[in-house]
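Final report, Chapter 2: Outcomes

The project's central promise was a pipeline that accepts a single protein chain and returns its three-dimensional structure in a standardized token representation, suitable for archiving and comparison. That pipeline is now operational. To close this chapter, we reproduce one record exactly as it appears in the project archive, with the input sequence first and the structure output second.
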Amino acid sequence: MRAVVWKGPGKVSVDQVDDPRIESATDVLVRISTAGICGSDLHMYEGRTAAEPGVVMGHENMGVIEEVGSAVRQLGKGDRVVLPFNIACGTCFNCSRGYTSACLVTNDEAAGAAYGYVGMGPYRGGQAELLRVPWGEANCIKLPGKPGDELEDDFLLLSDIFPTGYHAAEMARVQPGTTVAIFGAGPVGLLAAYSSMLRGAAEVYVVDSVEERLERAQQIGAIPIDFRQGAPADRIRELRLQNPLVRGAMRKGEEKMAGVMCGIDAVGYQARDLDDPGREHPTSLTEQLVEVINPTGALGIIGVFLPEDPGGKDKAARQGEYTLPWGKLWSKGIQIGMGQTPVKRYSLLLRDLIAAGRARPSFIVSRRIPLQEAPDAYARFDRREPGYTKVLIKPQLQAGPAAS
């Protein structure tokens, strides 16, 4: 079969690799109809992980079951499924408590496994024509409809970034009427904003510097903040205090709460320096969030921070060690949530929101391409070129004008 294979920093290619096969009675083989290119894939693409060449990429996957192992009873050939990027056994101590992101069985090296990602077990990714799904009944979410229908792209986003954006809002304790600031308007940041609105947030601010992304944030009802125009924390407070309805509702002393109650870092360790965007500053966004989150608020860090970063600027950064304003966090009483999303905790409910027409997360999709165009798409996505905010790979799509 054809698959996207990582060759080294800045290089992937579409190669012929061995077809996957049923290896265990609980396995499922899926014919891929759509796979996403994720911002987390860029960490590997750029050589910012400990990956070795030869990794088959792709942890955002969906398709149709082609074969099932002898122990699989609840799924069958022809079923349409989406695959949470967490590979989980479904029954260990962590899985049984809903933490499928920290399965104790699927990865000998650590808690948690995933498709096509360094350190996350020996599993191939799904930017390919076929994918082996271990523990198939635990890791397949059954879908209505047929491949290529109007909900295809919405359902694909259940594999990772829609639940991830929702998890970010959960960690930041977004509730009806709350105020939210999201730093980073990539796919996860945009879906964190969208999820915040689904949860009833009163105001959602989205901070970035890429015009295309800020325009999308505004289109869904968020308030875009371009950090090139000044410190985002100050601008958000100013906007809120300039609103007569906000200011008019404050009693004496409540101007201390002119920030937001909920903050989300949707970028992680590749954050840019706000004064010099050409330079990385891994904690710049977290520092701004500490400033803008009100006392007793909450911070959700969904952006990736890895324990090893070969591209870090110094020894501490290369080991995933960063300095944060813990004094302000403590004195403000800010609650912090962070870590990988337990996708299956949310995917069934979000699937049903999509099926009912209440959610359409595919607004973030900017391009659909055939498998052979993946190397070019990776390079353009890495350069943050317009039109490459969220790229979906369609293995059955032919090259030419059909790609968009």
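Archive annotation: The chain has two domains: 2-160+342-393, 161-338.
This record, like all others produced under the grant, will remain available to the consortium after the project formally closes.
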